[in-house]
Backbone:
DNA sequence: TCCGACCGATACCCGTGCGGTATCGGCCAG
DNA sequence: CTGGCCGATACCGCACGGGTATCGGTCGGA
């Protein structure tokens, strides 16, 4: 199977529309139709049910969409890591650590400090990324190690070690009535008048519908909270970054958040192994 | 990156010889040279150091060999699983379980029996394979679930659950002086006169050098043992399959063998999940 | 009921690029 | 110094991918 055919099929399966998929791929529609039916002929499997009004996935098509995405990720990972290996042996660039921007700041600082103190430590490039981006970055080879947070991030197919587990707090405007409580429950936060939950961008950049404000980063978020426009549930450790115009109140029934360090399962990099070892000693 | 170029590069990196690699791929040598240097140009990375007498891998080339193998496995897995998904929804064929031929026979029988008793159980095709083949079969999508044995099999990149842990025994001809012992150590078995360790075939079918007899399966092996030509160290559970012309003696310092059930980390198959659940209940 | 819009498939043409053969250039052995 | 080995280069023919034009089928609205 060819990557081209697979990329084409994934685009069609995503869009369920040959025209839009062709546009996304930057080609015309007829070659796309041809390539997909050629793939079906090669596999001997019907992947899509087409009518002139709708395109739907068959069971086999759903499998290929899922498995094919992994395979394309693996291809991209091979390419990225090869490029980075070449850059590394040319002397510039070290290993890349991906972490959600604004998360586990203190832990990250301690980790980088401890790592730098090791003899023969490889330089670490920190890649601050959006929510739930660390896993894909690892899987596509754009990063060598990542810090991620269960149960939010998906670790399937990655090797991990646990670093810390913590409860969650809700961050509220300091003047708000709820801020006076010693503890809260998720039910108390579901429909607070005037404090809707914020809306984060999806991977494709669009925002879900809802009443809350659209946010892109933590600075923006904290400002919106201090303005009394929204609230925010996050792990305990965000407290270290809060100023006194906002208040953190424990949420007793929020799921525990486990911070883990993760790497691709077949990693052979000694540098990654050393960094993980350092992290586990913290 | 194209699968064709990657397959070509992997072949050259394996053989470290363009001519042999071309032969293995079934093409002439010049297109192969061209494809590999085109890949290098596309990546902007030197993968091979060539002289007219020898070809060696660069660091980046070693990375691409490793990562590229994984990526090609993933591509093949996508293809295989799609084909099998189509066959499954056509009604024929169930999930494929890979297990080393002759290993954990009793456990396998219990598992299959328990699974068959479940309501709505999917049929299970058992794929008996050679040593250390289960991992690759899972990774290339030829199997959905496998039983493997630590520390012999490589589980990197697979999700696993432990089933049982057991010690090892040495299987000896019943008349042999060592057979009278209650327990033995690995050191006692290293150089037993007249009883060299058997030689198993490598994945490519060739045999390593050594004094022991070449063996291909357990029947052959047991026959050679009863003939007094070799001995064999294996997990406790092989005892169930022994006849009285051979004797099993515990090896006290042999590594413990853990039997695990494994599946690809991103498996979404409910049938696999059900089989794993059944296995854990045993 | 019919027309128009939408959507995927088909027909046909053109250019890129893959694979083949022939040959070159460098390197070690005898 | 020469023959043999090995990878690179040169050149050619054809298959295949991508483009435009068009068809066939289906739904919605007048």
Residues:
């Amino acid at each position: 199977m060819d990557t081209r055919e697979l990329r084409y099929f994934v685009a069609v399966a995503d869009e369920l529309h040959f025209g839009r998929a062709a546009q996304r791929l930057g080609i015309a529609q007829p070659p796309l139709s041809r390539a997909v039916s050629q793939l079906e002929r090669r596999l001997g499997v019907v992947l899509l049910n087409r009518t002139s009004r709708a395109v739907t996935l068959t069971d086999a098509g759903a499998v290929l969409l899922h498995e094919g995405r992994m395979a394309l990720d693996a291809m991209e990972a091979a390419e990225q890591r090869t490029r980075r290996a070449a850059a590394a042996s040319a002397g510039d660039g070290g290993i890349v650590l991906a972490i959600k921007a604004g998360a586990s700041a203190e832990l990250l600082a301690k980790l980088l400090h401890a790592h730098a103190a090791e003899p023969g430590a490889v330089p670490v490039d920190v890649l601050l990324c959006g929510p739930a981006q660390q896993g894909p970055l690892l899987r596509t080879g754009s990063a060598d190690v990542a810090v991620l947070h269960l149960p939010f991030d998906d670790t399937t197919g990655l090797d991990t070690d646990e670093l810390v587990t913590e409860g969650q707090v809700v961050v509220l405007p300091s003047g708000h009535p709820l801020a006076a409580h010693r503890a809260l429950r998720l039910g108390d936060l579901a429909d607070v008048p005037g404090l809707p939950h914020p809306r984060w961008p999806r991977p494709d950049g669009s925002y879900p519908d809802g009443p809350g404000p659209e946010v892109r980063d933590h600075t923006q978020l904290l400002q919106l909270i201090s303005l009394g426009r929204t609230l925010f549930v996050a792990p305990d450790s965000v407290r270290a970054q809060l100023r006194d115009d906002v208040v953190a109140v424990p949420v007793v029934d929020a799921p525990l958040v486990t911070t883990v360090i993760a790497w691709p399962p077949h990693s052979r990099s000694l540098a990654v192994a050393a960094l993980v070892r350092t992290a586990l000693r913290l």
Strands of chain A lie at 48-50, 55-57, 95-100, 124-129, 145-150, 159-166, 168-173, 232-235, 246-251, 257-263. Chain A has a mean pLDDT of 91.
